[in-house]
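Message: Study each token:
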Amino acid sequence: MKRQLAIASIFISLTLAAPRITVCWADDPPAAEKPEAKPADEADEESPDEVERERGRSLAQSWLDRIRNFTRGNPHEKNSDGIKAVFKEVVADTAQATVLVFAGDEPKAYGAIVAQDGFVLTKASEVMEAEEISCRLKDGRHLSATVVGVHDDSDLAMLKIDAHDLPVVAWRDDPPPVGSWLATTGIDDAPLALGVMSVKPRKIRPQPGVLGVSLEDADKGPRISEVMRRSAAQKAGLQKDDVVLTIDGKQVKNRQAMIGTIQKRKPGDEVKL
């Protein structure tokens, strides 16, 4: 019983002290001072309690070492700073053609320069509602940007910045072979993240759209028998016993016709009932 309690107290103390320990580990922990050895004739035989405490200290130190390695990062993992540094030369050209996109004062996404006269491709959903958009370039310039085009299906937006003779990304038509290294570039020298091409490109069937209602047939059209909580239908104000007459101006005669029409839409599409 004492043994179990001792181990439990070690884990509890370790959990409570972890944040403080992490702060102190900027450098290697100092070596523990060794107590002055007693003469042989004065040495006492260790009691069972002392043996148990020593075992507990060893166990605690073992876990502390594991936590230290975790907080520092494993130098052999692909996204460790040491491994990323190896790829600096590989991503150097692409980093020159990368920008950091801001919505107001907040960095939101990265973008790729696709034309020398200042066209930048980025993620549309991160910038479309922003009142002010700007881009920070690899060379340190911070330039205002405007949205000149959007492709909703791909969630892509084309930005325009006032700059010329910019480096542009190099495109390739074929996918990299399985097993190739992949690097995500930012505007720093080292890549943001590293990965490996693990599967070949393949087609994935899109998930059909749903409203979040249960339907039953009625005289004038499909009638809503239930509205799911937190669904798009509930947010739009649809209620139980509502009868749907048209979808986007086209008449729907029954439950099956309405389901078929909705399933042709993609998640996020708007429909008018």
Remarks:
- The helical segments are 2-24, 48-72, 81-86, 88-96, 232-236, 255-263.
